[in-house]
Amino acid sequence: MALAVGGFRISKSLFASALLVLDAVLIALIIAYVPYTKIDWDAYMSQVDGFLGGERDYTKLKGDTGPLVYPAGFLYVYSGIKFLTGGEVFPAQILFGVLYIINLAVIFFIYIKSDVLPWWAFSLLCLSKRVHSIFVLRLFNDCFAMTLLHASLALVLCQKWHMALIIYSGAVAIKMNVLLYAPPLFLLMLKALDIKGVFSTLFGAALVQIILGLPFLLTYPVEYISRAFNLGRVFIHFWSVNFKFVPEQIFVSKEFSIALLVLHLMLLATFAQFRWSKSEGLFILLKWADIHPDVASVMFTGNFIGIVCARSLHYQFYSWYFYSLPFLLWISPFPTPLRLILFAGVELCWNIYPSNVYSSCLLLENAALLALTRVGSRRVVQISAGFMIFFSILRAAGLGYLQFCSVNNFRVLFILGLSVFLGFSVPQYFKEYTSVVGHDLARTNARWVTLSVLIKMELSSFPVFNC
Questions:
Q1: Is 117 a member of any domain?
Q2: How many Å apart are CA 437 and CA 432, to the nearest integer?
Q3: Residues with Cβ within 8 Å of residue 210, at least 6 apart in sequence
Q4: Beta bridge partner(s), residue 67
Q5: What is this structure's pTM?
Q6: Where does the sequence pass through the membrane (predicted)?
């Protein structure tokens, strides 16, 4: 596919190939000059050593970061890596660098096939500092899981359903986050295949799980299923990137988990009925030509809903949805400058370490804004975007750097004190004004009620401090 620019025809495939070469050079430079950060590698190798030593009880497969919590596919993949690298980090980095390029090539194929992005926006897929780090400086299993997931999506676009489901099941066997794609994938199957085709593809996927888990299912089945497919894990509040502003006692509570699960299911049901099947109904078999343009959109949106409702996102989880961000931004009714600002804002949040209240708020607001575009009108989206970005920048860039203020400077103390005073007094004044007069102080002549609501929300919201 080629586009004419300034009299020249620019091929998306050719531009993507050039980006692959440049990114391969960048990967080589990162491996050569950026220090490796040890996080989970030693734990992975310890768990693999136990497996290779004959241990089949999942409760006894442990590393220095805790017990093994991934399905059996993880053990096979990292056993292969240990065989190829001898357990050494540097050759493993080279292997993960190759994996990064393979994954990027698959992503480019998906974008070229879907024809959503302009050619120059392909470069956005190569610009994430965090994703480069996840692949070649951290060596997380998320890298293999997401590469297989993207390969599965590419096969779906080519109507290779049986092979797509087999590879998808392999991705689930490495890390269960891939299950976030299961609802939209199942919906697409119902629309593209007859009932016989659906059952045969699901049987193939189930068979993969049985074969990979057979050594454990035949010996310690309860231990394997309870550890490898544990949906009730409670993550550590400190590492949360998305809900750091939620108090820890609420964050770890069962009620919070259930509320997010209910929200997740409600959003999936709403999108399935009114966005993904809005014209033909939920269970109407369609010709492939009728649903092909929306395959990547449905898959990426379904996964993004799961990301928004996830109780905790750790830094490596960014790889779960980074590659879908340009797609989601370009199918949303944003002007291009705003798309780039949102993309940069999300990347910024994922590169703040450790995460704090303000980075989490900014990340959640960006995610909510992007989700809003799938259900709201263009005018509502434009107004919401302006206010959310403006106030997010104020909170993140201003309050986020209070820790560097000098408390010995009277001017700094005066400005800080005045800011805190206004932060509490202005919302209180708005509240009392409304109760006495009977209407909001923030009244506008705008035709859109949304504008008045947004002004009221921002000016009447009390400040939140990370104590």
A1: yes
A2: 9
A3: 217
A4: 62
A5: 0.78
A6: 14-36, 92-112, 133-157, 163-190, 197-218, 258-276, 296-313, 320-346, 385-404, 410-430
